[in-house]
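Hi team,

Filling in the usual template for the complex we talked about on Friday. All components are listed, including any nucleic acid strands or ligand strings, so the model treats them as one assembly.

SUBMITTER: L.P.
PURPOSE: interface mapping
COMPONENTS: two
RESIDUES: 569
SEQUENCES:
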Amino acid sequence: MINISDLVKRFGAFTAVDGLSFSVEKGEVLGFLGPNGAGKSTTMRMITGFLAPTSGQVSVCGYDVATQVLEAQRQLGYLPEGAPAYGEMTPRGYLKFIAEVRGLSGAEGQKALDRAVEQAHLGSVLDQPIETLSKGFKRRVGLAQAILHNPPVLIMDEPTDGLDPNQKHAVRGLIKEMSADKAIIISTHILEEVDAICSRALIIDRGRQVADGTPGELAARSSYHNAVTIGFTQDEAPRALPELQSLAGISRIDEIPEGGELHYTLFAADKERLLIEEVSGLAQSRGWNVRALYAEEGRLDEVFRMLTTSDVSERGADAKVEVST
Amino acid sequence: MRELKAVFRREMSGYFATPLAYVFIVVFLFATGAFTFYVGNLFEAGRADLSPFFGYHPWLYLFFIPAIAMRLWAEEQKTGTIEVLMTLPIPISSLVLGKFLAAWAFTSLALVLTFPVWISVNYLGSPDNGVILASYFGSFFMAGAFLAIGTCISAATNNQVIAFVVSVTVCFLFTVSGLPLVLGFMQGFLPQVLVQAIAGLSFLTHFEAIRGGVIDLRDVVFFLSLIGVALVINGVLIDAKREG
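RESULT (copied from the run log):
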């Protein structure tokens, strides 16, 4: 339902988005990941018609955003970064305005408004000026605005930023609920969110795609994929360690003090090897008093750091190279 | 059309949701009154007409209208709401027109609320109400022209102070270019045709003509086409924001 091909956006000499191509189908929740300044917001702004691409194409439900922008925008719900809204208006007045613009009037408009208010849990603040609301409520006003017309395509720039853990949970639940019959793109810094709600994750760095896959596939690229952690009491640990070290094909063992216990994380040289079976077998045969034993799927944050390098210091180094050449 | 109506209504409610509208109207009425009675000496002149009242309108508008216009686009850009506005399915023309018409309706409301002045002169004497009506129309069109220029300049910046200062300057040039003092100065070195052209662009020239009591189509066309040109530039400036 969203098709993007060879999307490029330059601001002067700076290339914010550099040849992105991907598509999102109905039922998918695409998590858009990347460090600050990687081009996430810029890409979302091009999908929603706020920015025109330097080159490349975006289509939403078959409508080319460059030539049929209004038709494309009718299919879209968009929560911009920071959830901007008119501060002097009340959520009710604001949502009524959105409904009117979207052509939802009378009973139909009221029904849409009631549904969005319920889904975003805005009932208690409907008649307070938006500028007096907390950050969490402001975000939910933006969310209600985006879902008001029940659009087939939903684009949300950091939908849970600034929410407390309960609100985050509620918004994630809502996104999951809506995902069955929509194509959804969310951008986020929070990696646990990708695990929680995304069916697919796309990592971009300096405007380029560096990874695309299910959260599980991405986690499998982590060195922690299939790594096994086993925990002992302080006095049992020294006896077990030599035996663990003697296991064949172990590339590394990390020692992590954990309260009164010692945990060892074992990494196999071959990441696909099911180390957990061997370690639990060993523990059983030796009769160790094991306090913890688990295998990891992999750590997204490690994969994220591995793939994205465009932090501030790197940028600075690049700039120097450009100057000297 | 539906979108234009929605934008118009939102803008209108925006004026009255804050003290802005009330403060503006009260200060505007106070200022028109003060200029008319104290500076213009309406009573002492001993004539039953509103010429001192309307004479100050261009100079009052010079400051009051940019104050209304400065926020129209600059504020949207500052707060980021322009991103919501431009990703809603609203044609740019409806956005520009909706905002402008709401602001024009609002300034017209302030103008209409000066009616006690008109009642006063009718109570004190028997003025030519035709001339007064024509002057009100002239003032209405002139306000629209000031407003269109201010709105257009507001679209070019996200800083309201800059929008205000530049708007006042541009509007000032459009006003004084009709003063005999300025025209006389330019006659010294500019060819007659050019001086005429500059005088023809002046709000004063056209407003004075209408204040004479005759609504000449040419004066109305002048104000309306100036509004039209400013709004088209406004739309182009907003559309250009898509380029980033």
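MY TAKE: Confidence is low (pLDDT under 50) at residues 312-325 of chain A. Chain A is about 35% helix and 25% strand.

Thanks, L.
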